[in-house]
Write a structure and sequence with these properties.
Largest sheet: 2 strands, parallel
Structural class: mainly alpha
Number of helices: 19
Number of strands: 8
Bound molecules: arginine
Strand content: 5-15%
Order of helices and strands: EHHHHEHHEEHEHEHHEHHEHHHHHHH
């Protein structure tokens, strides 16, 4: 392996060496090394533009681009190790380049600062990572939809206050989860749209005196435009906060699903069973099947919230333009991306292989009087004011409780003792399947309405 030790490139003014303890504290290479590809892409575009604009010779420009490609290949293949003592990835690559191609390498940084360079790298990295996450979120929606399609008729209790409330279907519940993730995708792509501007050419803070072609560089790097103010271009880290806030909310969604899966897999609910491949055992209790993935996701949400709060706090009160505080942007953003992505990687196959227990759901739905609203609606549709009907249905429920009956098994005489409006068709009305069937509004649980929703969701995740 070829090891190259990066020399300090800014040692012009100072006479003495910096203290090792400062070097260590100051260095960001241990974490910004993951942006080496983005750094090289940014430098190559900058160098090519310098050549096109006649700011450096085309021979130098070509030598730089070629040298950078070689460095990229060598880092990728492991031939060139990134020096852990380098100040940052930008310094490392520039020094390695000069070491390889000599004089021309020293011209790369013409009309550029690490301030616009690092801002560019991080935006490029974020764009890629956002895409990656959206693909994963779509995959998660995909596996949820696969289950949903099989369970549009699977009756389960819908809950409020974790008390059985009204009948829904499993598909209806799963599609609710999908909607959360659809919003996450849209929030991430929103953040992606706003950050899609190239900082290159902003220089240290005040742009530069060289006739750079900022638009050309932006296009070359795949940005849709340029940052419109050089001070803002180097000091804006809104996108880090925006992405982390979208990720924090996404993590909240993941914890809500996880919590429900944990409940559903308990013996108390018994609505679902995890596959052996995605649940764990206990070292002492032979019967245990633990939902570790869900619990870890619940726990990891705190990290991402911390990344967000850390970033907001780091940015708070910072004067324009660049301040070294901003070097702290990267670890938080990377951790947010890594954590969110790892959670999705574990959750997707776990959800894919989960087995839902339709029978248990159906029997849970049969207890708890979840058709009591339908009983009140029955009377309302026959002309009784809803508040009165509500009170009659309430009395019927309490009568059932006393008699140990359900609304379905309570004799007609008992109904009719409360209201003459009741006739035999009440039993058909109270059937859970028909309660669901009647909730046929857009967004409701009827198999038809959910079928429409599934189609919509499928369209949303189809490229
Ligand atoms: N490693 C630095 C960072 O990530 C690069 C920018 C350094 N700029 C400076 N003026 N010292 O923020």
């Amino acid at each position: 392996m070829y090891k190259y030790t990066a020399a300090k490139l800014w040692s012009g003014r100072s006479a003495g060496e910096t203290d090792k303890r400062l070097d260590e504290f100051n260095s960001s290479v241990s974490f910004d090394c993951r942006m080496y590809k983005e750094d090289i892409a940014g430098s190559a575009a900058h160098a090519e533009m310098l050549g096109r604009q006649g700011i450096i010779s085309s021979e130098d420009s070509e030598a730089i681009v070629k040298g950078l490609r070689g460095i990229c290949d060598d880092i990728e293949s492991g031939v060139l190790a990134i020096d852990p003592a380098a100040e940052d990835i930008h310094m490392f690559i520039e020094s390695a380049l000069t070491e390889r191609i000599g004089e021309a390498g020293k011209r790369l940084h013409t009309g550029r600062s690490r301030n616009d360079q690092t801002a560019t790298d991080l935006r490029l990295y974020a764009k890629k990572a956002l895409n990656c996450l959206s693909v994963k979120l779509k995959a998660l929606i995909g596996v949820l939809l696969k289950h949903a399609k099989e369970h549009t008729e699977t009756v389960m209790p819908g809950y409020t206050h974790l008390q059985r409330a009204q009948p829904i279907t499993l598909a209806h519940h799963l599609c609710a989860w999908c909607q959360m993730f659809l919003r996450d995708i849209s929030r991430l792509s929103d953040a992606g749209r706003r950050l899609d501007e190239s900082p290159l050419g902003c220089g240290a803070l005040a742009s530069t005196t060289y006739p750079l072609d900022r638009e050309w560089v932006a296009k070359e790097l795949g940005f849709s435009g340029i940052c419109r103010n050089s001070l803002d271009g180097v000091s804006d880290r809104d996108y880090c906060a925006e992405i982390l806030s979208a990720l924090a909310l996404m993590m909240t969604h993941l914890t809500r699903i996880s919590e429900e899966i944990i409940l559903w897999c308990s013996l108390e609910f018994g609505f679902a069973e995890l596959s052996d491949a995605f649940s764990t055992g206990s070292s002492i209790m032979p019967q245990k099947k633990n939902p570790d993935i869900c619990e870890l996701i619940r726990g990891k949400a705190g990290r991402v919230y911390g990344d967000l709060i850390g970033t907001l706090t780091m940015l708070k009160s910072l004067p324009l333009a660049y301040n070294k505080d901003m070097q702290e942007d990267k670890e938080a953003l990377f951790d947010g991306f890594d954590t969110a992505s790892a959670c999705l990687d574990a959750l997707i196959p776990m959800v894919e292989t989960i087995a839902f227990q339709a029978g248990r759901m159906r029997s849970a739905a049969a207890r708890g009087f979840i058709n009591a609203t339908d009983c009140a609606d029955y009377l309302t549709k026959k002309g009784m004011p809803f508040r009165e009907a509500y009170s009659v249905a309430g009395k019927l429920v309490s009568e059932c409780e006393c008699l140990g009956k359900t609304l379905e098994t309570l004799p007609l005489e008992n109904y009719q003792a409360h209201s003459e409006m009741f006739s035999d068709d009440i039993y058909q009305t109270l059937r859970l399947e028909s309660c669901i069937q009647r909730r046929d509004l857009p967004g409701g649980p009827s198999p038809r309405a959910v079928g429409e929703h599934i189609k919509y969701l499928e369209d949303c995740i189809t490229p």
